[in-house]
Amino acid sequence: MAEINNFIKTIMEDDLKSGRVKEIITRFPPEPNAYLHIGHARAIITNFELAKAFNGYTNLRFDDTNPAKEDQEFVDGIIEDLKWLGYTPKNIYFGSDYFEATYEKAILLIKKGLAYVDDLSQEEMSKMRGTLTTPGVNSPCRDRSVEENLRLFEEMRAGKYKDGEKTLRAKIDMAHPNMNMRDPAMYRIMHINHHRQGNKWCIYPMYDFAHPLQDSFEGITHSLCSLEYDNHRILYDWFIEKCEMKNVPHQYEFGRLNINNTVMSKRYLKQLVDSKKVSGYDDPRMPTLCGLRRRGFTKDSIINFILGTGLSRVNSTVEFEELYDYLRDDLKLKALRPNAILNPLKVVITNYEDGKIEYLDCPNNQEVEDAGTHKIAFGRYLYIDRDDFIEVKPNKHWKRLAKDVEVRLMHAYFIKCNEVIKDENGEIVEIHCTYDKATKSGTGFNERKPNGNINFVEQTTAIKATFYKYSSLLLPSDDENKDFMERLNPNSITEYKGFVEPFIKDTKPGDHYQFVRMGYYVTDKDSTSDNLIFNETCPLKSSFKVSK
Ligand code: ATP
Ligand code: MG
Question: What does pTM read for this prediction?
Fold first, then answer.
């Protein structure tokens, strides 16, 4: 695996050298309101790999301070995704575990005259915040006495007020050039059931207030987040200072990872699931980690992809196909290479004895000597892929089978097609070929050159299987603002009913293969011994060039 190297690592080195910190402690703070996507993988890998590089550690902290959308299902899903990536958090915490301690700090700010209870509605508050060019206006509640604020805040907690009726705000500066500093909200009232706290609380801290305190409570040294929090850092530091926090974490921002024709906002992913446009969060077309896993991407391909695309202080957009190269790199030498025929065409070897089957040696992975061999069956009745046959050879570039043309069946014999059988609609249903015994693989036969090499499976021993190929869920669009649901690709999934050789009859969900000449595939989670199902992870090669 590549080593992590980026601007944050340099900062950490400097911080250790200067003595600002004694060790590196990071956290990954997802909101448990959906499954994680490949963008989150950047945050996870950055946090865990950086801490690991300095023998530090990383906490998983569920940012569950907004009870409206959170759910245990997502908590479990996130834990499973981290485990799959191979990262073990030192601690698993929930933001809501700090509600009492956070409340205490709010009281401290009120007592210091740095927070007040406001009666303004959300709308009035935002109207009075001013703009980037004009200062805001002080709320009429801004000068409430400490005693009154303490009483009102306690009443807020006690449930005396309705949602939105009161807000606790930090008292900073309504004319501050950074809008986030214009008396930001610290607590809002929400009478709603919390997935862990039940009805214990009806006031909930805002992210900007809760997050720095949580970082400090845990002794986080470097609080890494994506770029959109850039102009919140000043507020982060303000809360840390004014709340007199013992541990002083620092926030650093990195660019978000975007992928072409792939939408990664959780809201959109949820919309796809809820509208049943996909089979679930783990649909193999989804950019979620569970979707990518089901599609057959390995943890190493994802980690190397994230590390390989680098990290900077600007958002970056990469092509989804870049991930393919990392998958191929990972599996090229690891995956078994069985024969599969997705789109079968029946072949009869007319000069081969009926009822006879012979077993020929086939390497498990011809690029790896130690990978061993297995036997493939050869007989009178075979399947080849329809894409490997054309009735009339069109030109010299056609390096597959055609009528009156001879090809090599890989690891078996040369065969020549003599007759094409069609149904009443003119569809080819079967082809008749002859084989040449002298051309047996491994005998060193070199008197003629075949017109290409194709692969096959033997009909009577082959096992039925279903294959799925995927393409992007979204079609490209020049219009950035076009509704994603209108960009859905109607052909993002293609089903094939074909065969695999019995070599992999005991395949289990999650097994990876390189099907000879077909591509990388994984056994689907719904695959059973009576009903084999394979997902294409990516093709063998592509014309796409990685920009490195
Ligand atoms: P979304 O915008 O998809 O709803 P989010 O940022 O609200 O995602 P969180 O659960 O808050 O999701 O994210 C946890 C962490 O992952 C945050 O630190 C966030 O910055 C980071 N993260 C989310 N998406 C990306 C991305 N595309 N690239 C890099 N980091 C990301
Ligand atoms: Mg977020």
Answer: 0.94
